[in-house]
Amino acid sequence: MAATHIRFDWAIKKQLRDKANYVVLEGFISELLGQVITIESILESESNPQTQDNKLNRVDILALNSAGELLLVEVQNSSENDYFQRMLFGVSTLITEYLDKGEPYSQVKKVYSINIVYFPLGQGEDYIYQGKLNFIGRHIQDRLEPSNLQKELFKIEQVYQIFPEYYILRVKQFDDVTRNSLDEWIYFLKNSEIKEEFQARGLAQAKENLRIESLPNTEKAAYQKYLEDKRYEISMLEGAEAVGELRGREEGIKEGRQQGILEGIQQERRANLERILQLRFGTIPSEISGKIQGNDLQQLDNLMATALTANSLDEFSQHLP
Among candidates 179, 193, 214, 186, which has minimal Cα distance to 21? Predict the structure, then answer.
């Protein structure tokens, strides 16, 4: 069935930054966190500047809620091996960015990092994962709790309420069976469709405000171009990997040794990386081409993701070893 509603990553780039649509984002986050969230404002930070709007691989939005907490929602479309590390870096950046010089540590803001990923991040059977920090005793396995004074000062009951919380939604692992209201949101994130019977917070407004058919003609054209570009770049990445592995195996079989398989895959992966760079940025300087040649498979995978998201060849070259 064709999608009837705007993809959530496009909505993050456009519609959800409009105050009239805060209710949609509030509904999604409220269902995920299990508490009613009120968004005060959409913020700009070093982690989500609008200059990233042309990046197809990743989009994000940063909000401040009525409790003074930071809510970072990020959509990642294609595989990235160091995504866990990037989650950590993004949260760390926000914590320091929103603590003014000279302010006491008591003013550190709580951060919720909500990551919507369309690739199999890590290994696991579930499609929703939550990470929060507790301190557990080494000897008697008790949990370290805040003192009564700390509870009163910081309005908390548990230590984890101070530290960042991470949520990972592995959308492609969802089986399309809606067991609760949060699953209705996951269904929408995966299929860009909102069924008539869905009752989750925010979905009624999303159903009305995020229809593809309601877009002005100019924005509808831009949205279709966005989808085409995203499909093309993801296809390029997946195709490069498939062709590289196939040719690598063929070369390895001919040589009769396992090393030939690896070398063939690496050689084709490098060639496809250069082709993508040429498509996006034109002629590739020999210096950059030479640096690409010395990378192993994992490094090439990371560089491929960077090639799809970089704004310029200079930005890409900063990630070369």
Answer: 214
